[in-house]
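hey so i finally got around to running both of the ones u sent me last week. sorry it took forever, my laptop kept dying halfway thru and i had to restart like 3 times lol. anyway pasting them below in the order u listed, first the sequence line then the structure token line for each. didnt double check formatting much so if smth looks off just lmk and ill redo it

first one:
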Amino acid sequence: MKVVPVILCGGSGTRLWPLSRADFPKQFLVLSGNHRTLFQQTVDRLAALKSPELLLGDWLIVANEEHRFLVLDQLRACRDVRASLLLEPMGRNTAPALTLAALQATASGEDPLLVVAPADQTIGDLAAFVTALHVALRTADSGAIVILGVPPERPETGFGYILHERPGADDPAPAVVRFVEKPDIVTACAMMERGDHLWNSGMFVLKASAWLNALGRFRPDILEAVRVAWMACSVDGLFIRPDRDGFAAVPAESIDYAVMERCPGAGFPLRMVPLDAGWNDLGGWNAVWLVGEHDANGNVTLGDVIAQNSRDSLILASSRLVGTVGVNHLIIVETPDAVLVADRANCQEVKQLVASLGEGKRTEFAAHRKVHRPWGWYDAIDRSERFQVKRIQVKPGASLSLQMHHHRAEHWIVVRGTAAVTCGDETQLLTENQSTYIPIGTPHRLANPGTIPLEIIEVQSGSYLGEDDIVRFDDTYGRVKG
């Protein structure tokens, strides 16, 4: 039985702002577990499927083009994973993303089973997860589409539900009757009492052909548009890029709306396998509080936090001390450039707050103060009208692009490691406590020829300090700008 793990990695996680940003969304954050990001935890779980009766094919990871180096960096910490990255030029929701994966999986003429998982969930019981997936794989191998359903722990209005038939003694995967989209609290309580509604986990097991056939039946417009974009794709090592213009024409739709909710009664077998494994989708800060490690007062804390006479709160500090006195049921999240304070009961409204940041074109909407790049990262630690100070780290063997700026000069001071500095026609090596000056309009490049990370302090001065004032002449990573 050939199985291809498919990880859908394109979410934005706006309800977990300010930790989750458009340029660094929640799947790449450490929010629970053993210091692994949510994406890495997803990889670890699916890797546990490996067994003598299962052949794990090359993984398929569907991600946003702008996150490709984040995915690669985090994959390096995952052992024995051979993956291709299907890079969406823009988000079109989960149905087109799965369609890209299904077309890629069948390109060689095979029809593998796909285990489809979002990259932003947590599972508490790995053994139970693997057991449920093996049941789902056996069911899907006969041609059924299988969804994993989670027994509800509470009446939840933020999740979708699945109504299923009563399972028989020899029926571990009963048929799905219908879907219920995010009910009100009264309906959620009633469904929980009945016991035949499970949470929709958003995880699916199905043959690639089963997805393509169902999509062709219910949404042929999506299938045809994705196929056009995929057939015109370009391949660059592990990166597979569908045609940008073609993908822009793809209708945006979720897997549930496009196919799953239409299957019952339409001749497509849709089955449900229960997943009782401590599942959580971390869809908001209250969910992070629920799965966190609580102290004697019900608080979940991370970082430098002193909580005095405070109860049932989530308090995260990333760059400084956060102290609380006499607060209850709050979400407090501190980052170097933003602080969120919210009542736990209203934490879903963070999404509207983030939308207003985007409408106002606030920099806090998309990026952290610390910005990751394929060569390392930079942290804009101070800024005023005509100057900016950055702390920059370059990975061993990595280099920035050969570039120039029209409006700013730069001073570089090496604080750790060795820097190979190209300025105009000259290249020199600088070590700790040495510095150099890059005049406006001069082509230059910073590289790390050493075996330890290079750290420098960069002081920019000039009339305009925006990141778009970069003219690239050569770049190892194929970037045009940014």
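and the second one:
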Amino acid sequence: WGLTSPGLGEQRYVASVAVSRQLQAVLPECDLIVGTEEEIRIAGGAADTLAALRELRRLGSATLVVKRGAFGCVVFEGPIPDRLDDGRVGPGFEVEVFNVLGAGDAFMAGFLRGWLRDEPLARCCAYANACGALVVSRHGCAPAMPSEVELHHFLAHGASTRWLRKDADLEHLHRTTTRTRDWPELAVLAFDHRSQFEELAAGEPAERIARFKALLADGARRGAAAASAGRSDPCFGVIVDDRYGEAVLPPLTGATWWVARPVELPGSRPLQFEAGADLALALREWPTEHVAKCLVVYHPDDAADLRREQLDRLTTLQAACLGTDREFLIEVVPPRDMAARTDTLARALEQIYAAGIRPDWWKLPPPPDAAAWQHVAHVVLRHDPRCRGVLLLGLEANEDSLAQSFRVAAPHPICKGFAVGRSIFAEPAADWFAGRIADTAVVERVAARYARLIAIWREARPHAAAAPLALRLTTKDTA
């Protein structure tokens, strides 16, 4: 309106007969009028809030909502009483105000979410005040807006602290319900291997390994194209490392591919990161869509000190990924020299969840039977029903073994596909590094094996992909 300098938000109330007159030409057409006390005074053309509300009531029958910040809001449907608090009061929430940007937008969105559905005004106020509280507790505006799931959780359960952005459950819900892309199924070619390729290269320059990884990427694209002809399922992905595969990442980024990159130092136990102590700094250089993949050699019966150190590292991984707004995948592989039972994987996952770690994805060796799958599904869904799911790793198994693993996995909706590497490229890699085949043969063989494995997955899981990710929990579980 030109009544004050731009940016002087704290001095936004400036009386103006001209402004009030223009607003009042529109207000009689309104069904709902929402404003702060200052905005209501400007609209009503009075220095007193109650007097301004009475003028608005004289002009029409709109529902009037006065926003009062930390005190919530007050709603007036009929005549204006002698005191603001004699209206329908919607109490606010006691939270730390971290950033006020977006609070009004959030309040309005919450109120309209109920009002447009004819929900009771008390509920509309609760939605509005909760949305405002959640947004002011976070940094940012639009990205801080709560999802419907998060909103209902907050209204039903509250928060563990008035610093809402420090409530782990709320932040997890916010992150997992505002994801920008769905991945109902994934067929992933994993070639993030580093030490294995170094052994194959036998001292050849690093450029030789990088060249082979470029061939694998070409094979992945060709195999996906063959498998996707006339179909939209599954989605395709790659896991590629920075050390030798950096050049293949840009063409696969920003397209339809799911892309993950490893962060672990190969062969480390206890877990160490290739970036050392600068994991979060390294992740900040990645495109946000890239998933951080971390392999940990972990057994639930490891020595207590070793388990604690590994869990501390995974906690660091989670903090780095949350701080850089990216998803992360944990690959759990039990050590070969320790016995594995039906419940070994499930117990390992249980311990990781108990440490407060909730990855977006799991990558696991194929559980041996339906009972082992049920153990895994039970743990994941009990601790984090919003987990993306489990991807099967190949462990260099042949196609017949992988087909059997897929058939066992197919009835379990929590399994969203596979992330297989050496089963697809091990033989072509050995032949290429030995000079027995040319580049074109690598691409053709990898493409054919990748497409064939996708077909085997589809054959094993023709209907399970549409099944919801759900598990019947007992009364004991839900309690």
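quick thing i noticed on the 2nd:
The first helix runs from residue 17 to 26.
anyway thats it, ttyl
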